[in-house]
């Protein structure tokens, strides 16, 4: 079985951590100077292990194995959320690099904008499978400051570069190692999670239209307060969604904006970004029906008008049975009794790569379940263990 150089693997992770360091985490938004520095750093590491390194017009960094196949693809992303953790995404890329260093026939990929700093998100993994159009690039803007994606690509020195696509038949499958971003493994005293599938995320924009007016001169009976209607709608959703959801469903109002947003003005408009997640499409359909019924009921009860618009609907991505079995065997070899199968509650690049090849994921515990925050962390011994499990699982699958 391939032997992972754990010390070098951890050294690579900690070197990458220095680029865009923020407290104990990192701040590397997509196409920022820090993000581009990290991509150049990665290309140098890929060349050191004998891969042919390149970067494309959407920012994907790719290390191509020069030898004969069959080949695997492995990786994740290296940009971060704002003031966030050092392992989310970066762990998967450094683990893929460690597999290549151990001699496995692996192509290493660091996909651009998995974190969704730009409208649409998952730009790199969508692009590399041919699912990102030029029109979508033209339309996309930064969620942080409204910068057009075309402008950000030009500022990053990527404009004019071709966008690569995966060649048909080259890869037997895709492996992605990631932190759990939850507490299941830690709470159960387990060290490895073999992922069974990746949830779909259905995103919605809820708009509440009321009447902007004076906070002192307008009586309570006269008001059409969009803010209060929004609060009551979200409370209704929190009460009704448990009747429609599954065991691992989640729902989130991640952004609520009241306009004009002044203390002495009754809000005339509320804008809500709402999402729910599950791995089962039938459950997602039930949750959508619940959402629509709640909006309909609010329009019956309230003096404000509520409208609902779908922003996006991703598809759940089940992991490949043969790849899961290979990871099961490797986990039992290195952590007997200390691993489990589990679904992923987060979205990952693997769900897009799954459209063109078999995929699998491996989870390592998150201390306290913390992620998307600079305090995100995992024990070094768990990082090293899971990287070795990943390597053994990859070899078992290649030989299968």
From TrEMBL:
Similarity annotation: Belongs to the peptidase M20 family.
Entry GO MF terms: hydrolase activity
Name of the molecule in the record: Zn-dependent hydrolase
Cofactor entry: Mn(2+)
UniProt cross-references to InterPro entries, sorted A to Z: Amidase_Cbmase, Bact_exopeptidase_dim_dom, Peptidase_M20
Complexes and interactors: Homodimer.
Record Pfam families: Peptidase_M20
